[in-house]
Amino acid sequence: MQSGHLDAVIFDWGGTLTQWHDIDFHAESLALAQAVITTPSPDDDHHAYAERLHAAGDVIWGRSRDHQQSSTVADLFTEAGLDHDPELLAAYREFWEPHTGTDAQVAPLFEGLRALGLKVGVLSNTIWPRAWHEQFFRRDGVDHLVDGDVYTSEIPWTKPSPQAFAAAMDAVGTDDPSRCVYVGDRLFDDVWGAQNAGLRAIHIPHSAIPANQVGHTEGTPDAVVQELGEILDVVTRWHAG
Ligand SMILES: [Mg+2]
Asked: pTM value?
């Protein structure tokens, strides 16, 4: 790696590289329920499936919060006691699509960080498959600017587990957390988690984190920025020491 004090800047995805949107979780569950394999029979009740999926979502995200245990979309249906067909997830995917747009400041920021000789990484707590995330980045023309990305649907742990951060550092080819910066919108998963793993943390404080997703500790960020474009200055300063 190049000289300077840093090797990599690793980013959260939702609410960090994308704009935070409040989500209607009832509508989300109804979209998800369209992937349930129905018989069909009089017992097939779309709204009942949605309710079970909503409750299952609380269980798996509670598991992430309390035990840093990851899940996949398939795990969500299993938790709900429902069979699903991944081919039928189109409605769920379409429900989320408007909330997946990459912030316009991402491309110039990633280019600026790479021009400093730094690696750019992504670490997202997500139940979605890697292919979905890669398609979002490709659609928005930033996929070639990411050196390494880790989606927790592919590993056993979620943030704030230090093992999740270690996986992300490994993905960008570094193993020294003191030479890494993490950027996120959550004070528990992202800021406390990164600092607990030995990284520096930058907070973007615009997301309305649901009360049941707030963890046991809130970290004090090493820097706070109001928009992504400000990160290059902060990182340039830290990199120079
Ligand atoms: Mg986030």
From this structure: 0.95
